[in-house]
């Protein structure tokens, strides 16, 4: 019975595996991984940078005077 269990184990989990990953598959895999990483980095930049940019615009606009009630305020976009 032990020999059967060992045989099944060796079939399911071989000790030596020989495989070839060609240059096309390797470059495709690298491209996908880099694309996913770049999308995460760009998402973080978008979440952090754009609110800071709007805050800097609001804080450092030169020549802006307070609006009187009859004037319209111009909001920076």
Structure keywords:
62% helix; mainly alpha; 77 residues
Secondary-structure topology with pairs:
Layout: H1 2-12, H2 23-59
Oligomer: single chain
- Percentage of residues assigned to helices: 55-70%
From the N-terminal CA to the C-terminal CA, the straight-line distance is: 76 Å
**Strand percent estimate:** under 5%
Question: What is the number of strand segments?
Answer: 0
Q: Care to give the gist of this entry?
A:
The protein has about 80 residues and is an all-alpha fold. The protein is about 60% helix and about 0% strand.
Describe this structure in words.
With 77 residues, this protein is mostly helical. 62% of the residues lie in helices and 0% in strands. It is built from 2 helices and no strands. The radius of gyration is 30 Å and the shape is elongated. The N and C termini lie far apart (76 Å).
């Amino acid at each position: 019975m032990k020999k059967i269990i060992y045989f099944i184990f060796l079939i399911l989990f071989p000790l030596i595996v020989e495989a070839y990953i060609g240059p096309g598959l390797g470059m495709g895999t690298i491209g996908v991984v880099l694309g996913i990483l770049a999308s995460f980095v760009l998402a973080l930049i978008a979440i952090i940078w754009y609110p800071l940019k709007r805050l800097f615009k609001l804080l450092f606009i030169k020549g802006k005077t307070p609006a009187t009630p009859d004037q319209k305020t111009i909001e920076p976009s």
